Amino acid sequence: MGTRHKGASREVKALDAYIKLMRAAESVSARLAPHLAKAGLTVSQFGALEALYHLGPLCQRDLGKKILKSGGNITMVVDNLEKRGLVERVRAESDRRYVTVNLTKTGRKLIGELFPRHAGAIREEMCVLSDAELEKLGSLCKRVGLKAKA
Amino acid sequence: MGTRHKGASREVKALDAYIKLMRAAESVSARLAPHLAKAGLTVSQFGALEALYHLGPLCQRDLGKKILKSGGNITMVVDNLEKRGLVERVRAESDRRYVTVNLTKTGRKLIGELFPRHAGAIREEMCVLSDAELEKLGSLCKRVGLKAKA
DNA sequence: CGGAGATGGTTTAATATTGAACTATCTTAA
DNA sequence: TTAAGATAGTTCAATATTAAACCATCTCCG
Question: Which residues are A58's β-sheet partners?
Fold first, then answer.
């Protein structure tokens, strides 16, 4: 068997794994999103609140890094959260370029109640895998995801 | 150790795997998208062309199922592909509710050239994993993704 | 000091995305 | 045959998303 065939087979395996990875992520997201929608939150809005909840106040740039979104997008997501009174913007005194995003009392209450429920829903989604399989999946995904830095 | 602690540990594992799954999918997508953008295509547009290329003409509903998008979205994606002359809509004679989407000669040429290059890029993205690991990742993802039907 | 360049955020234009309301068409059953 | 219900597609409103242009601010020299 020549390298040409070997290369083709390798490519099929890579494509197949890639497609299944994407489908899994999309399927799980799609099944989880309605859960958040009931609380009137989009996935990004939830992600932002969750980051602020677990990491404390962040500037928009750091928030963007955490939820893997562009600067322009963060402006809009924070805009919408601010309109609903869930977060507030505070211009940093030391360096006036930075805007720190803080959870309001209302926002903290919402995410504090929602997060445990959402975590439960995620556990339900992943329940088809055993503990060992979850770890295996996590470690494989981590390597694929981090490939960028290589 | 009581069930409470066991349950919590299980939840942490599930959350951790979930986050890594999402990150991996987003990271790979983000690294792949610029590749398509060079050809002036978005991920959805590429997905639609690729489905038509490998499966033949499809009605919009089937196209939506293939690329996991809503009906309203398909209308727009096909609109934009049609504007660029890559696909054409044909109203079905037998049942006039259906619109069949066909690749044009231009569209077929584009996806025919682009697909192999894109597949190569995907292989590069997945190259951190061995063949066996790719299969393992694929099978775990498949089970998580298909959980919906359960 | 003062300009050059870097950095954080906003705005804008284009496309994506969904759910819901709506139109057109088909099917079914009374 | 015809009215009711199902189905395919479109439209609309809202938000997401990005890249690029842009403004404000800061830092670092010279």
Answer: A101
Cβ–Cβ below 8 Å for A11 and B140: no
CB atoms within 10 A of CB B103: 21
CA-nearest of A56, A47, A35 to B22 is: A47
How many CA atoms, within 13 angstroms, populate the side-chain half-sphere of residue A59?
10
Hey, of A22, A43, A44, A54, which one would you mutate to test binding to chain B, going by the most B CBs within 10 A of its CB?
Answer: A22
The answer to whether residue A7 scores a pLDDT higher than 70 is no
Segment B104-131, tens digit of pLDDT: 999 999 999 999 999 999 999 999 999 9
Note the pTM of the prediction, 2 decimals. 0.85
- Asked if B86 contacts B97 with a C-beta cutoff of 8 angstroms, the reply is no
Q: What is d(CA B45, CA B53) in angstroms, rounded to the nearest whole number? A: 12
Give whole-number Cα distances, B128 to A14, A149, B31, in Å: 10, 12, 15
Under a CB-based contact definition with an 8 Å cutoff, are residues A63 and A74 in contact?
A: yes
Question: What are the chain B neighbours of A146 within 8 Å (beta carbons)?
Answer: 27
Set of chain B residues whose Cβ sits within 8 Å of the Cβ of A13: 131, 134-135, 138
